[in-house]
Amino acid sequence: MRIAVLALVLWSSPTLAQRIVIDAGHGGTDPGAVGCGLEEQAVVLDIARRTATLLRDAGFTVDLTRSDDRAVSLSARTNFANSRGADRFVSIHANSNAGTPATGSETFAYTTPGSTSLNLRDRIQEEMLRAWGLRDRGGKLANFHVLRETTMPAALSETAFINNCGTDARYLGDATRRAQMAEAHYRAILRHYGRTPGTVTPPTPSTGTLLGVTFEDAGRGLEDTSMRVSGAAVALDGRSERATSADGTGAWSFTVPAGSYTVVATRDGFGEARRTCDVAVGGETWCSVGLVRTSPPEPEDAGAPEVDAGAPTEEDAGTVPTVGTDAGDEVEVDAGSLVPPERVAASGGCSATGGATGFGLWLFVGFLALFRRRRLTLSALAGLVVVGCATESREGTSAALLDETQVTRIELAREVAPFASIEGVTTLHPDRRFLAVEVAPTGDRFALSAPGFATLDVADETTIRTLAQGPARGFAPRWRADGRALGVRTPGQSESAVPHLALDLEGGEVAPITEPDGALTWIADDLVRVDVQGQRRDVSLSGDRPFDPRLSPDRRFVAFRGLSTGLYVHELATGRTLHLGEGGHARFAASSRHLVFERIVDDGHEITSATLWIADLDAGVTAPLTGGSGFDTSPSLATNGTLAWLRDEVLHVGRLHLR
Ligand SMILES: [Zn+2]
Fold it and tell me: Is 70 exceeded by the pLDDT of residue 441?
C-alpha cells in the first residue's frame, strides 16, 4: 500500500510528468483545408482538445499550441515547444486533395527521423486505423516545418480527407467520431511510452445523448423551464433506462441509440408527464419535460421546485454543436482592462519596486488584438494584459489603487524606413546548412545548430567541429562572456536561463554559465520571471502564453515572445511595453537600445518569407534589416557589433551599421 502511494506520488510529481505538446493545425486567418462544409482548423482543434484532456487525466503535462480559433505561426509553435522543453510534439491535421476526393489516414515523421519519432508515428497510424478504419495510407516521411524544427521526437497526423464528403468528412464532422480520433492519439502516446491505455468510455457511433430537465409547467409549457423540479423519476417508455432528475438543476440524461423516444417523468404531487423526442447519432437532443402540479406543496416539499437560472434552458433545444464547446482554458482572456486580483495573487514572490516613481502598481494593461479572419469577419478579440509587478505593500490590493498616471499602455512599435544596415557581409562554411547560429560575445566564434537540433557545432572563420550531440543539444546554446564555453540544453530541460550543462571548447564539462551579475529570466506558470540583483519581477501576458525570455545587457528590458501574438519588449522600470508584432529569436545589441529579431511568415504548412528586423527601443520603432528573396533567420550580435545570421540556412557574418 505504501509503495503504491509512493508510486502514485512519484508518477504525479511534475518532474516526472512527460510534457506533450499537442498542436492543432492552422487557425485564425488560416482555416486550413476546407471541404464538405467543414474547416480543418475547427475539426482538428476539437480533436486536439479532447486528446489533451485524456492525456492530462493520464498524468501527462500537456500544452496546446492553441485552444481556440486563432492564428499561431509555425515558427512560434516549434519555438514554444522547444523552449518549454517538451518531450513529444504531435501535430494534428486533416487532409485534402485536388481532383477526385481521396480517402484514408496517414502519419508523418521528419525525413531523417530518429527511432523514437518513428515509433510515435507508427503508434498514431495504427490507432487511427483502429479508430476509424479508413484506408491505410501509411507512415510517411516529410520535411514539414513542425517536424524539422522541433528538438523533440515529433509526428504529424493527417486524420482523414476533409474534401471527401462520403466517408472521411462525415467522420470529421461527427463529434462522436472526433472523440474516437482523440482517443486514438491518446492511446498511441500511451503505447509509445509503453503504458497500457486505460479504459475510455468507448464512444459508440450509433448513440446520441438525450437530455433535459424536469420543470414545473405553470401553464406556459416549454416557454419557461426556469422552475426546476428535482427528484422526479425519469424513464424512457418501453426501455429499462431510469434516472432521477438531479437536485438543484432537475437535469437528467441518457445515452441511447439513435431513434425516437418517449420520456416519462413522474413525481409525487405532479401528474405524469410525457414527451417524445428524436435522438440523432453523435448529437445532443434536449427534451425537457414540464410537470403540472396536482396538489399543493407538502411542508417538506416547500422548496421543491428549484430555480437555477444558470442551468441550461430549453432555448438550447436541438442538436448542440460540439466543436469548440468543451471547456478549454489554455489561454486566459481578460476582456476588461484592469488586472484581476487573482492574477496578481498568482504572481507570488513579486517584491521589486515599481521603478523610478517609487511606488509600485500593476503597471499594466488593456490591449486588444484583433485576429482578422479571412472573409473579413473578426473571429476573436483577445484582451492582452501585461502586468509589471508591484511593491509588497501594495500586493493583494486591487484596481481601486490604480492611478491612471501609472497605467502604461502597450505601444505598437512604429514601422519606419531602414535606419540600420549590415556591412561587409561574408559567408562562412557555405557548404553547410544550419537551423540556428549564436555568435560569441567576442565576435570570433559561432555556435551552430544542425537540422534537428541534435548536433551543436562550433566554428570560426576557417574551422568547424562538433561540440555536442544528443536530443536538444543544439537548441539555444548560451555563450560564456569570454567566448570559451557554451551552455547547452539537456533533453526535457524547461525554460531556464541557465542551461544545466556547460562545455568548454574541447567538450569538457565546466560550471553552468550564469550572468556575471547573477541576473536571470525564465518562465514559470506562464509568467515571465525576472530576477535582477535579488529582486523578483513577474510579467504576465494575459490572453497569450509567453516564452523565450531574454534580458538586455543593462537589465532595463526583458524581451519575450507570445505564442500567438508575437514579440514584446517590457521595460522593467517603467512598465512600458513595446509590441513588435510577429517575431522571434530576439537578441539585444551591447548598448541594450537596439534589438535584432527574425520575422517569419508562413502559409500554415511552410515558411513563405523570413527577414531580419531591428528595433530601436528608445524610439519605439522597427525597420527591416534584410529583404529580397532569401530566407534570413536567427540573428545574433556580438559585443563589437558583429552580426551573424543564416540566409537560406548558410552562415552569414557582417557588421551592424546604424545610420
Ligand atoms: Zn493542415
Answer: yes
pTM: 0.70
Q: Which of 158, 216, 332, 438 is catalytic?
A: 158
- The per-residue pLDDT for 405 is 31
> Looking up cell 479532447, which residue turns up?
50
Name which residue leads in pLDDT, 343 or 617.
Answer: 617
Distance (angstroms) between ligand 1 centre and the Cα of 580 equals 27
Ligand 1 mean position to 95 CA, how many Å?
A: 6
Residue 616 CA, distance from chain mean position: 30
Cβ neighbors of 537 (< 8 A, separation 6 or more) are: 350, 352, 388, 389, 529, 530, 531, 572
Tell me what pLDDT residue 54 has: 95
Cell of 225: 423551464
From 316, 335, 370, give the residue that closes a domain.
316
Same domain, 532 and 629: yes
CATH of the domain at 253: 2.60.40.1120
Give CA–CA dist 330/543, Å, rounded. Answer: 9
46 domain residue, yes or no: yes
Residue 588 backbone class (left: φ over 0; alpha: ψ -120 to 50; beta: rest): beta
> What is the β-pairing status of strands 650-658 and 446-449?
unpaired
Residue 525 CA to ligand 1 center (angstroms) comes to 30
User: How far is it, in rounded angstroms, from Cα 193 to Cα 113?
Assistant: 18
Last residue of a domain, one of 316, 346, 379: 316
What spacing in Å lies between the alpha carbon of 332 and ligand 1's midpoint?
25
User: What mean pLDDT do residues 392-412 have?
Assistant: 40
The question of whether 315 is a catalytic residue gets the answer no
Query: Cα of 553 to ligand 1 centre, how many Å?
Result: 40
Helix and strand tally (H, E) in the chain?
Answer: 8, 46
Helix (H) or strand (E) holding 410: strand 408-412
* Residue 27 CA to ligand 1 centre (angstroms): 10
Q: At what angle do helices 175-192 and 40-57 cross, to 10 degrees?
A: 50
Domain match, 131 and 242 both: no
| Residue 91 and residue 61 share a domain | yes
Domain total in the chain:
3
CATH of the domain at 168: 3.40.630.40
Tell me: do 224 and 176 sit in the same domain. Answer: no
Q: Partners of 633 in the beta sheet?
A: 646
Minimal CA–CA distance to 25: which of 656, 630, 603? 603
Q: What is the domain extent for residue 120?
A: 17-192
Instruction: Please report which confidence band the pLDDT of residue 409 belongs to, taking 50, 70 and 90 as the band edges.
Output: low
Cα separation, 281 vs 477, in Å, equals 53
